[in-house]
Amino acid sequence: MAAQMRVWAAGVAILPLLWASGPSTQEAAPPFVIVVNKSNPITALPLTELQRVFRKQTRMWRHGEAMVPVDWDATSEIRQEFSRRVMGRSVREMADFWVQQSITQGLAPPSTQKSTRAILRFVASVPGAISYVPRGEADESVKMIDVNILP
Amino acid sequence: MKRTLWLAALVAFAAARPAWAQQDELARLKAELANQQAIIARLIKQVEELEKKQSQAPTREDLEEEARTQQEAVDSMRENLLGRVNLNGYYNFRFSADKSPTPTAFQQHHLGLLMGKQLGRFNFLMELELQNVPHHPEISRGEEGGEEGEGHEAEARELSAAAEAGGEGAGADISGEGQVAVENAWMEYNHNRYLNVRVGKQLSPQYWWQNHYPNLTYSTALPIYLRELFPAELVGAMVHGTVARPVGTSEFGVGYKFYVSNNQFEGNSQADLRDGKSWGGRLQVRLPTSALLRRFDVAADVYRGHIALVTQELVDDNVVGFDSQIEIDRFLLNTEYARGRTLGRTRFGYYIQPAVRLHEDWVGFYRVERLESPRIHHAEERHLAGLNYRPFPQIALKGEFYRSRPLERSFVELGEGSTKPFNGFATAAVFFF
Predict the structure, then answer these.
(1) Alpha helices in B167-319, H assignment, sequence order
(2) Residues 11-70 of A with CB under 8 A from B
(3) Which among A18, A49, B235, B357 could bridge B293 via Cys, Cβ 3.0 to 4.6 Å?
């Protein structure tokens, strides 16, 4: 018990140092944009909410449509960038997360596509779909939304 | 006369020359005409080809029909994907060797099948588990406790038997023929992130019980206190939800779980000895993270219920505990502590497990743990250190050394040589599919 309390005290003592070394807000804009189906009324999403969407911790849009997140193939560079910047985890760590979710919650990871064209076609066709594509490659078949980092 | 002839000859010559020219002109005109005819023929052919192509080109209606067909195909595929049952499972094969009463053994430890399905806001999960373990360490310990309880008070004997009956190994067949058990079978309604309702047989909400699966844990063995404090599972109804507030790129979250369930004794799914049920709850706080601090979760649990004696009499069983999970860069720290009280006797247990991610595939860990329980006459401290290798997220290879030290306590009757610490080695291979 005493050992455990010492461990707790040490952890609490170093927390301020860890929080002080937070992520820089000056990082360059990500090389991808978030896209949703055109029938989705949202125009912006907090970053933490986007994380929840792709972890399937949130399942329904406010307008009642089921959320359908679509990811890129695990070997793609854009997937690795999205995983690092948005999810805060590497692709491998997210794979571990989905093994845990599959076994404890019975959830399957988001479906994946391998090209911008396939992503755009899917998001344009499925009302609750949300995904991401390289910046500049989103066309008029989908709607781009902003992602906010709230203070 | 001669002049006249000469003039006539000149006129004749002059008149003849245009005839030659006309023939040349005719020939040229004929050639030009042939050329033009060839051009016309070629143009006619091109026009025919264009007309043919135009007749094959899709109309606007054709294109719209094609788009509808493609949309239907996508919708059908989406329905198939959403409607399928998720089938997963895991297999765990273990070998352990030490100086404990448990003999050296290969153990086909667990084969679990999980089926899950999601329909809109409803979620269903079922887990079937096959255990085929001729000598299960936890069962052996419970049996020894029962045997040694011959000379103890009747209530202590009844508690020992009841505690063993209420544990996960309840009714386990130790003949080596195996046991099939339903470990999870629940359905859930997800109203929103703040309120969800889950009913059925489900694991207790404490951290290690929720994540006790062999492909999720680093070590081969469960913490020694685990089965002796909080019940492993509950049959009842639980409400749970989370409230979170974004903080920068992270969030501050508070989660709750509250449940009402049957009491813990064998056959409790069919009848309970009295109307009083057990209840429990969990409050979890997720603190904001930063670049280095990747996770900091703390939680407190409480359980108030009853445990049945062999006489079918229920006695109070109250347990409180807390746990934390901290992840800083490559370093992880998991801790749990729990304290229970039954029939005026206090039992407690804890573990502290630091780990380090040596590589993407390798994790090194150490764990110190303790259990002191009068109701099963057992007090032990154990140290483990080992490695966990995951070449793929679905495959885990584990190896660990451990040292177990029985503790001298008044409620423990130790036989000859039973106070001696002993060392052991265990290894396991796990496959998740």
Answers:
(1) 207-210
(2) 11, 14-15, 18-23, 46-49, 52, 57-60, 66, 68
(3) A18
